[in-house]
Amino acid sequence: MNTELGWISLLPSLLAILFAIVTRKVIWALLGGVLLAHVLLFMPQVGVGLWSGTTSLFETLVNPSNQLIWGFTLAIGALFGVLERGGTFVHFVRALEQKQLVPNKRRARLFTWVLGVVVFIESNVSIMTSGTTSRPVYDKLGISRQKLAYLVDSTCAPVCILIPLNAWGAFNLGLIGNQGVADPLTTLVYAVVLNFYAIVALMLAFGVAWTGWSFGPMQKYEREARVKVAERLEQEKKPGQNHIPKQAINRGALATVLISLVTMVLLVPIMLYITGDGSIVRGRGMVSVFVAIVTALIIAIIGTWLSLRTPVKVIAEAVLRGAWKILPLAVILWLAITLGDATRALGSGAYLADILNEALPTWMLPALIFLLAALTAFAIGSSWGTFAIMLPLAIPLAMSLDLPVPLLIAAALSGGIFGDHASPISDTTIIASLAAGVDHIEHVQTQLPYAVLAAVITTVLFAAAGMMM
């Protein structure tokens, strides 16, 4: 098996990303990336490589831990299907309007940002909660779903890394402790303060939420959203249109939405505590998320039937249609996970890390570690995988050169968050598309300019910090 291919090891991920963006055929791009990676692993035995790639797809699909991912992905689609098609979300949106919580676009965007920040226990739950709650409000006010996807994606991972009272914190704490750091917890706390990308991305998202600023491809979709809402308002002015009166709010339907979403959020830390034998940071994240979302789905089904007397047949169709609508993204997630496993086997991350072995000015190291971690995360689509590769490089480097260990840790963590935020094959990028109900490539294309801007600012900050060492 070939595991030291140098720059060739980057081809499967980079070609998959390029092909997906150019052709918009994400599934075929990822599938080709998986097969190419395995062909490279077993060159010159092409047939063996193709068989290995096919086998790896099956193994990823039936892996018990991954089945929880497929389960909660389809369940969240079913949940939104029930809330939307069952009719409860209509009353939720009207209640928000009546209470003047989101009377305008600015308040709606800030509402999304705050939700993303508050729900910091688990990134996917943060995305799902703020995305599914905000989607009908954005449609109503004429804000593009692409901007919604950007806002939820720009709060989830940055907040989870900045408030590490979760599995993210436990994972990185373990990596830092294994490198011989005397006080891992204090070191991680200092690194959080210096995590420039997470801070910049979060503040940039706040600025966009406050001002509505759009640039790049986002401008097109914002214009389209304004046109759609204008056409809808014109349609509603025509006589004979059947719609719920503005003040008609079913309190039971409103309670169904609120209870199901609050349950989904609160049940995650409870399940983490239970599965971690009294410790949230040691809890089983995927199990906790799966239980929380399935419980929320059950509440939504029962609440929809009781409050609106929606026929069981309609609710059942809503469950199936919601899950079916999400299925393509579940397939993308499956292929992205398989490709990530293959790129790790190829040694893509290790090759990128070796680039730092060349002689470099000391003050440039924080910025270069950030850029290398960002490139690694973008290529493999995994922030945690990047942390596992980069922290064992950054910490000994800092110790051997007598540099501030928290600063180099922060640079590695920042780069991982950039890739998690921007990569088309990252699970959080995919789930943000899912939660906002937007085409995945449209989300990637509209979000990337903002992510790159944050990365440029972050590079400057790390370079400045390096000069001050």
Structure report:
Its main location: membrane. The chain has a domain at 70-167 and 216-223 and 246-329. Helix 2 packs parallel to helix 15, helix 7 packs parallel to helix 20 and helix 16 (348-354) runs antiparallel to helix 17. It is mainly α. 78% of the residues lie in helices and 0% in strands. The mean pLDDT is 80. The chain has helices at residues 11-23, 26-41, 46-62, 64-85, 88-98, 105-118, 123-141, 145-162, 167-177, 184-193, 196-211, 218-237, 251-275, 285-308, 312-346, 348-354, 365-380, 383-400, 405-422, 427-436, 440-467.
Key structural traits:
21 helices, globular, membrane, Sodium:proton antiporter, Na/H_Antiport_NhaC-like_C, 469 residues, transmembrane helix, transmembrane
Quick structural gist:
The chain crosses the membrane at residues 6-22, 29-48, 68-90, 110-129, 188-213, 253-274, 286-306, 318-340, 360-381, 393-418, 448-468. It holds the Pfam family Na_H_antiporter. With 469 residues, the chain is mostly helical.
